[in-house]
């Protein structure tokens, strides 16, 4: 064996299995030895090793109970399908005597099936997924530099433990105050030299008092860990809360001490406070490949963070394809999604990879109070074939359906439309199109009404936008729809009065968010409006939003809509009835057409006595619609 070969460690669940492993004959292959019991490895088995002899490899044998908590374990990878208890006597040897193979030639390209972990906890998943970032932060801390990490809340406890331990520093952690303030404990007594401590402290004040104490106790071997700096001292610049001011003073007051603080991506930390940290590291989503620290190898995420059982549950599971469906999730959420997917498909006979992806999508929608799984497809939209074709091309680029030659792949980000603005009269299917796009992308969708985004307080609208986008990334692939986009994205010139200045800030925030898009976390923004002329031109630059007109349906589109809705409600429009309705409804929108068939359906099923949907009845409904419209017009003119 050459020196480049690493040792493997085989883990047995108990003494008996460990003893069985020790008794393995030296000449059998690693594959055969490992297949003889419930053995696991601390690293994926290197390709081809399964075919080497047990004696050559002489693995390190470990007991599972003695491993440090958090050690990921891997099922052995086999080159061929091996029975759980291989009957060695059944395999004829090269001499035909029934002796096991000794010198079995490795196949030219060994099939590397499962370098997947057998089991994986959320903390292990976090440490594996963010291995590079953790190493980077640990080396900064070792160099006695303070770091501000922007990361989602669920991963924070796993991150700081590993970062501090790899940096060789003891963590002094600022803990959250207990939920219930009345814990019966005596209030902390002020010490001599302390600023006056109020007798009754609220949780934030107690946290501050604790922080003061921790900072005072720091030394060269410790790192101060603040898990949620944004909650402790959040807010925008220029309006520092008293707490934020105090935290800022406290942390700046100990410049020689090493600090590690965390903030959530959607919340902001005042700049004066952020400046206390020499470096800012942003950790979002999961990486495409995972880097093994002890093993210079890269593994696709779908292999490193998905267990053998999970991968085997879904037929045609592809670890490379997997990434696209979870790119924006954090590792903790990803593990929860996988557990959920396995439990949902527990009793299904043969789920396939596609089922896994739809379940992940449903999970994201469930985890988010806002995002949902759309139920509209392109088939539910009649007409507008050109718009459909145009949108399909864009989706193909966003989703990476077209393989580009490697030398052009860097152009992909430049080809991706960041968003669309659908403009046209009301009821023409703009929202419908947005939902169908989300469905085509296998994406989750959030439809927000523009006015809802606009807050009353300074900075509130921007924060709403930041939160929407942070959640959109987590749920990627995702589509964010701003209905009545003109209400938030109006032209700057429209806002010359000070009162509506927030409009500009919101546009700026949306642009910032859109400029930060990563192609591997597909998030598409769609604005819909009836008044394109009001939209800020900055948003209409070709690299940002592409505007697409969705006008009133033409004759052909109306006819198609009529057959679509008629079929949906089970109403007969044969014998030219469809054409009559189509011509009567010239100038009307899709919503009107839909309402004709909805009304006919209601009359046929819920009216007493029921009115069957005959051509005459349909004619009456269309007539009523026309009259109503004329009345509306007249009252509108008045
Ligand atoms: N092209 C179409 N094909 C089938 N149905 C349509 C079409 N366009 C509109 N509809 C019907 O009209 C309803 C309303 O459409 P939608 O909400 O998408 O309109 P909109 O353009 O977003 O309107 P608004 O500008 O008022 O928000 C849909 O639920 C659907 O029933
Ligand atoms: Mg709409």
From TrEMBL:
InterPro entries: AAA+_ATPase (IPR003593), AAA_ATPase_domain (IPR050168), ATPase_AAA_core (IPR003959), ATPase_AAA_CS (IPR003960), P-loop_NTPase (IPR027417)
Entry keyword ATP-binding: yes
One MF term in the entry's GO annotations: ATP binding
Top-level taxon: Bacteria
Segments forming domain AAA+ ATPase: 416-554
Region (Disordered) residue spans: 80-116, 176-202, 608-638
One Pfam family, short name: AAA
Chain intervals with Acidic residues compositional bias: 176-187
Alphabetically ordered keywords of this record: ATP-binding, Coiled coil, Nucleotide-binding
Biased composition (Basic residues): 625-638
UniProt KW Nucleotide-binding keyword: yes
Gene source species: Streptomyces fodineus
Protein name: AAA+ ATPase domain-containing protein
Family according to the record: Belongs to the AAA ATPase family.
Biased composition (Basic and acidic residues): 88-105
């Amino acid at each position: 064996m050459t020196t480049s070969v690493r040792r493997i460690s085989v883990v047995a669940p108990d003494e008996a299995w460990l003893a069985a492993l020790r008794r393995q004959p030296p000449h059998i292959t690693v594959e055969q030895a490992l297949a003889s019991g419930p053995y696991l490895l601390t690293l994926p088995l290197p390709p081809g090793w399964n075919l080497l002899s047990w004696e050559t490899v002489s693995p390190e044998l470990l007991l599972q109970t003695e491993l440090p908590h958090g050690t990921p374990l891997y099922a052995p990878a086999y080159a061929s399908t091996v029975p759980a208890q291989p009957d060695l006597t059944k395999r004829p040897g090269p001499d035909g005597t029934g002796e096991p193979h000794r010198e079995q030639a490795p196949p030219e390209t060994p099939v590397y099936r499962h370098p997947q972990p057998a089991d994986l906890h959320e903390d292990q998943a976090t440490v594996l997924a963010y291995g590079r970032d953790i190493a980077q932060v640990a080396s900064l801390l070792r160099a006695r530099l303070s770091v501000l990490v922007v990361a989602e809340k669920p991963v924070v406890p796993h991150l700081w433990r590993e970062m501090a331990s790899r940096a060789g520093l003891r963590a002094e952690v600022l803990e959250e105050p207990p939920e219930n303030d009345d814990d019966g404990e005596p209030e902390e007594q002020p010490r001599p030299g302390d600023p006056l401590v109020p007798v009754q402290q609220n949780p934030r004040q107690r946290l501050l008092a604790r922080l003061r104490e921790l900072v005072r106790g720091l030394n060269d071997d410790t790192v101060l860990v603040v898990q949620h700096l944004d909650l402790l001292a959040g807010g925008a610049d220029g309006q520092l809360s008293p707490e934020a001011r105090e935290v800022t003073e406290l942390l700046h007051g100990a410049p020689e001490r090493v600090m590690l603080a965390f903030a959530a991506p959607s919340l902001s930390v005042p700049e004066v406070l952020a400046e206390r940290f020499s470096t800012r590291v942003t950790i979002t989503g999961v990486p495409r490949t995972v880097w093994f620290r002890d093993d210079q190898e890269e593994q696709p995420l779908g292999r490193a963070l998905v267990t053998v059982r999970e991968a085997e549950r879904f037929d045609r599971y592809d670890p490379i394809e997997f990434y696209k469906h979870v790119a924006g999730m954090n590792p903790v959420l990803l593990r929860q999604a996988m557990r959920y997917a396995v439990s949902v498909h527990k009793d299904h006979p043969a789920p396939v990879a596609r089922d896994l992806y739809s379940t992940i999508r449903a999970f994201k929608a469930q985890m988010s109070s806002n995002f949902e799984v759309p139920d509209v497809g392109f088939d539910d939209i009649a007409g507008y074939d050109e718009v459909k074709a145009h949108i399909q091309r864009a989706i193909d680029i966003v989703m990476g359906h077209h393989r580009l030659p490697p030398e052009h792949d860097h152009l992909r980000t430049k080809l991706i439309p960041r968003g669309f603005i659908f403009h046209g009269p009301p009821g023409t299917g703009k929202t419908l199109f947005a939902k169908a796009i989300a469905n085509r992308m296998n994406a989750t969708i959030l439809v927000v009404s523009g006015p809802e985004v606009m807050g009353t307080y300074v900075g509130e609208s921007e924060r709403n936008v930041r939160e929407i986008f942070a959640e959109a990334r987590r749920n990627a692939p995702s589509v964010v729809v701003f209905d009545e986009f003109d209400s938030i994205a109006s032209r700057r010139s429209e806002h010359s009065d000070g009162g509506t200045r927030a409009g500009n800030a919101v546009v700026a925030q949306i642009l910032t968010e859109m400029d930060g898009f990563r192609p591997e976390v597909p998030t598409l923004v769609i604005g819909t409006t009836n008044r394109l002329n009001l939209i800020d031109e900055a948003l209409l630059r070709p690299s940002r939003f592409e505007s697409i007109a969705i006008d009133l349906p033409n004759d052909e589109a109306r006819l198609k809509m009529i057959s679509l809705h008629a079929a949906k409600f089970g109403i007969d429009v044969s014998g030219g009835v469809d054409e009559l309705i189509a011509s009567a409804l010239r100038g009307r929108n899709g919503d009107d057409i839909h309402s004709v068939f909805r009304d006919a359906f209601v009359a046929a099923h819920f009216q007493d006595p029921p009115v069957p949907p005959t051509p005459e009845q349909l004619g009456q409904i269309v007539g009523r619609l026309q009259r109503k419209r004329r009345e509306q017009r007249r009252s509108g003119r008045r």
